[in-house]
């Protein structure tokens, strides 16, 4: 029981969409901290508690968390809707990493990393995870990994938070605090 079936992965993605972006699409009300009622979610998505518990426990990205009494559930991070998931400021490792599509390179070099349609920029603790994150989206051009100098960011006043699933979050990464360290391109012309 430690692996999700294809149907459970599909349901997990639907839950992520509902809890992060569109609770109203399932007729759910989300509170200011991102919580929804487990019983209402189960009813809205025609599932059961056993399946929901399995998805929370074995989702490879650890996207969700139950309240202590298991009466509520929320996404750990990744929201595009305004919620306060009660993040606490934390001190990150010296370097964090961000993987993205190569087509974003020019705007990133100019503006830095921005949360786009989310509340925070998501950062990984290792290069392999950054590659996995980048490659979740299809690209005909390729992918790029940036190393983030967190000490420089902290000195410039930036704050970091760590979500309950271990993902590091910040509001923005200035271009001066990051460097491209790896690129995988389908194009021979790199810069």
Automatic annotation (TrEMBL):
Superkingdom of origin organism: Bacteria
Gene Ontology molecular functions: NAD+ poly-ADP-ribosyltransferase activity; tRNA 2'-phosphotransferase activity
Record-level GO BP terms: tRNA splicing, via endonucleolytic cleavage and ligation
Keyword Transferase: yes
Keyword Transferase: yes
Keywords: NAD, Transferase
Pfam families: PTS_2-RNA
Residues in coiled coil: none
Family affiliation: Belongs to the KptA/TPT1 family.
Function comment: Removes the 2'-phosphate from RNA via an intermediate in which the phosphate is ADP-ribosylated by NAD followed by a presumed transesterification to release the RNA and generate ADP-ribose 1''-2''-cyclic phosphate (APPR>P). May function as an ADP-ribosylase.
Protein name in the entry: Probable RNA 2'-phosphotransferase
Origin species: Selenomonas ruminantium
């Amino acid at each position: 029981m430690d692996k999700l079936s294809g149907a459970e992965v599909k349901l997990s993605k639907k839950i992520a969409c509902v809890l992060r972006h569109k609770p109203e699409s399932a007729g759910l009300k989300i509170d200011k901290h991102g919580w929804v009622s487990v019983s209402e979610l189960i009813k809205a998505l025609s599932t059961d508690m056993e399946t929901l518990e399995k998805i929370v426990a074995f989702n490879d990205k650890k996207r969700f968390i139950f309240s202590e009494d298991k009466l509520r559930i929320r996404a750990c991070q990744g929201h595009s809707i305004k919620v306060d998931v009660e993040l606490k400021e934390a001190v990150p490792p010296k370097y964090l990493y961000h993987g993205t599509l190569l087509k974003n390179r020019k705007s990133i070099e100019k503006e830095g990393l921005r949360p786009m349609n989310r509340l925070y920029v998501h950062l990984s603790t290792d290069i392999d995870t950054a590659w996995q994150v980048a490659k979740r989206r299809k690209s005909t051009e390729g992918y790029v990994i940036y190393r983030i100098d967190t000490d420089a960011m902290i000195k410039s006043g930036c704050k970091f938070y760590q979500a309950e699933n271990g993902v590091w979050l910040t509001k923005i990464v200035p271009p001066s605090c990051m460097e491209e360290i790896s690129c995988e391109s389908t194009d021979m012309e790199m810069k």
